[in-house]
Specification:
Distance between the termini: 44 Å
Structural class: alpha+beta
Order of helices and strands: HHHHEEEHEEHHEEEEEEHHHHHHH
Radius of gyration: 23 Å
Shape: globular
Number of helices: 14
Bound molecules: adenosine-5'-triphosphate
Number of strands: 11
Length: about 475
């Protein structure tokens, strides 16, 4: 890591007891109303700044700031041109029809800001503010991310463009959908999915010991893993995984947010051999005479789409989540996301991150030098903790060449015993933590504790024909 960065990190620490973002300054958006009294804008944002309508539960006051650097890899997508078309997989989402219907009443067929009704401010971040909103006359909730182009530096503007560029590329249930991008006066607004349950960091802090039960941690880890896998397939390295950036939708499933620190690299799909230890289905480790079975190894092939050649030298991310190679400043690739995934799992299970020190400098030193340790197990350790520790240990390997995931990406991690019981194609049919199991006809009856499963198998879903199958897998019916 370069000296300048360490100095900046160090000096920031004292003032950051409230853990405010590193480069945040009071923008004109904080001081004034959000939008000028433009004839196109019938919204006065002023009331949202001072009233109780700001929902602080969404923006946990102790959220950790991210280190940011200049954007050196532009995201390869054009945001100019006609209004956005629904993406292939998320296109059946009713939010798209609402956006299309609202836009159709406009003379030029384009969605405008006055079509939106702002309900409350959800919080503000490094780049701007986020509002909960609805389309006037339509059902469905959205979030509106607003950046004041006049109030942010060129670097932040570049980050805002990166974020918009990444959002425009996404089409995945655990990532936000960009419904529209509105340029109004000096404001850039992104209309995306709204997550009614706030962020995982706040949810964890509301629990004893700031940690989650193992089954919940496994569920969130599995969904985040799929989101990271998708991003890597697109060549996007995320670089800012932390519970603050894992939002929870109304249905309990996750959505990653904050893509301003991403970078994009080339990715080439490759078919690789993979070995999995395959115990005979439904069998125990011993045969009927009590003798230990020999482990059979199954050789399969798998498609690997990991941006293995991704390379960046910038120091970005959140201190406690930085990988050693980022701290070094010697260059890093997609492996930083797998390191952060290990820290994320650790924090969900133990209520704190593994290398946190008394100051941010101490944290960075620990990442480099300190070995990985786990709090004492105690008596009543939950089943599965040993597997979780093993997975964390394989992810938090300081040398990225030996880290799980760095070779073949997410499939390597999916095969680990901690996650091996997850039925990946049906993950959206699991009952998310904290959601009530509804009627017996609801498919979301499984838990993710490794014992109970989604009740419907893929084979059974096919009996309902493709339409039903699509509905289940797209989650349309049960969202
Ligand atoms: N789609 C959304 N649905 C619900 N809440 C959201 C949504 N997007 C952001 N938020 C909330 O709004 C607040 C501000 O989000 P934003 O992404 O701008 O900043 P941040 O998470 O603090 O990130 P950073 O400062 O690192 O860019 C956060 O507390 C976040 O939880």
């Amino acid at each position: 890591m370069e000296e300048e960065d360490v100095a900046r990190v160090g000096s920031d620490y004292e003032s950051e007891k409230g853990r405010r973002p590193l480069y945040r300054t009071q923008s004109s958006m904080e001081r004034d109303s959000y939008f000028p009294s433009d004839s196109d804008l019938d919204l006065s944002f002023t009331s949202y700044t001072s009233t109780a309508s700001t929902d602080r539960t969404f923006a946990s006051s102790s959220a950790r700031s991210s280190l940011s650097a200049a954007v050196e890899f532009p995201i390869r997508v054009s945001l100019d041109g006609p209004p956005r078309r629904p993406p292939r997989h998320r296109g059946s989402d009713p939010h798209w029809s609402a956006v299309a219907a609202a836009a159709s009443v406009s003379p030029d067929g384009v969605l405008r800001l006055h079509h939106l009704k702002l309900l409350r401010r959800l919080g503000s971040g490094n780049l701007g503010r986020v509002f909960h909103c609805r389309l006037k006359g339509f059902d469905g909730d959205f979030a509106l991310k607003v950046v004041d182009r006049d109030a942010v530096s060129g670097k932040k503007l570049a980050q805002a463009r990166t974020e918009a560029g990444v959002l425009a590329l996404l089409d995945h249930p655990f990532l936000p959908t960009l419904y529209a991008q509105l340029e109004v006066s000096h404001y850039s607004c992104l209309l995306i999915d709204y997550c009614a349950r706030g962020d995982l960091h706040s949810l964890m802090r509301a629990r004893p010991g700031n940690r989650l039960p193992l089954a919940a941690a496994r569920f969130y880890a599995a969904e985040v893993l799929l989101a990271l896998e998708y991003l890597h397939c697109k060549g996007i390295v995320y670089r800012d995984l932390k519970p603050e950036n894992v939002l929870v939708r109304a249905d309990g499933h996750v959505m990653l947010s904050d893509f301003d620190l991403c970078f994009q690299a080339d990715v080439v799909a490759a078919v690789e051999k993979a070995e999995t230890a395959a115990p005979p289905p439904g069998s125990s480790d011993c045969d009927c005479f009590g003798r230990r079975r020999r482990k059979t190894v199954e050789e399969t092939t798998e498609v690997v789409v990991e941006p293995r050649g991704a390379y960046s030298r910038s120091c970005v991310g959140t201190h406690e989540y930085l990988a050693p190679e980022v701290v070094d400043g010697g260059g890093h690739g997609s492996g930083v996301d797998w390191w952060a995934f290990g820290v994320f799992l650790y924090e969900m299970l133990y209520g704190r991150t593994p290398f946190r020190g008394a100051s941010k400098e101490a944290t960075l030193r620990n990442i480099h030098t300190k070995g990985l340790g786990f709090p004492g197990a105690g008596d009543g350790e939950e089943e599965g903790m040993a597997e979780a520790r093993d997975l964390i240990g394989r992810l938090l390997v300081k040398d990225p060449r030996k880290r799980l995931g760095c070779d073949n990406g997410a499939p390597e991690i999916k095969r680990h015993p901690f996650l091996a019981g997850v039925n990946w194609p049906l993950i959206r049919c699991y009952t998310p933590p904290g959601t009530r199991t509804s009627s017996s006809r609801d498919v979301r009856v499984g838990g993710i504790d490794g014992k109970t499963r989604p009740r419907w198998s893929l084979r059974r879903l096919w009996h309902f024909g493709n339409k039903k199958h699509d509905q289940v897998l797209n989650g349309r019916k049960w969202l």
